[in-house]
Amino acid sequence: FQQAFTIMDQNRDGFIDKADLRDTFAALGRLNVKNEELEEMVKEAPGPINFTVFLTMFGEKLKGTDPEETILNAFKIFDPEGKGHIKADYIKEMLMTQADRFSQEEIKQMFAAFPPDVSGNLDYKNLCYVITHGEEKD
Question: pTM of the prediction?
Answer without folding.
Answer: 0.47
